[in-house]
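Please, structure for the following, as tokens.
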Amino acid sequence: MNTSSITALPGIELKSPGAGLITLDPVRTALLRGLDELLTGLAARLAAPEVVGPPLLSAEGLARLDFFRNFPHLGVSAGKFGPDMLDGLASGGSPQHLPLDPTGHLLPSATCYGLLLSLEGQDVGEDGLRLSAVGRCFRNETHYDGLRRLWGFHMREVIYLGTKDGASEHQERGGEFIQEVAARLGLVLTRAAADDPFYDNGGSRARLMALDPVKFEYSAPDGTAIASVNRHRNFFGERLGIGAGSHGPAYSSCVAFGMERWVHAMILAHGSAEQALERLRAAAS
């Protein structure tokens, strides 16, 4: 990784455009790009090809995945100005208080949703399928906090669909990779079970999760969760009709990295963005 040309912006301060929004300066941008390059090592290790997911998700599709039951507060809807608003806008009118027509779509809150919806009705075969993608994700939150909690952020995911054993192996290998990369970067992470599964967490599924946790988070010393490993059992396979050959509905799992949060953790561990970038360069060499 060549960082010799990365410089700060002398005398220039990149201010936040609004709550939960941020512009990364050149050093932090290089840090984010370099970290993503390093973390794609998991995709290479697992032979997960890179794809680009859709920029919008249908509300109908998300409803079938219990998104609104589980995360009613997170959704960021995509709207558009109706035809009767266009003349006023074109003549210089302010759009601030104009109503928006619904499009039936939301901005992604996680990278994997678009990939899973794109596989609806297909069969991944006996050997299963792995994919990797990074995307912009958006979440309504009760509060925002620098790089730790943003309205819009980047999420790298490596997903697996296939057999029950394959999904468990994917989760385990993902967790091992997270700890391995963290050690190379000088990060000390704690691992803990999380209580916000991607699928319906009511009734019997909640009892199942208490006995067999399906999501683990990896957090920096200040409590910021920067990565997670998730098993979805066969929930998405059943809801989306995704098969795994003779094994029936596909089981799935994913490994997720919040990229801006990794930047935060690196700065926290090494004192400054510049020192964090130097450590990243050493780890990547």
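The CA atoms of residues 217 and 228 lie 4 Å apart. Confidence is low (pLDDT under 50) at residues 206-211.
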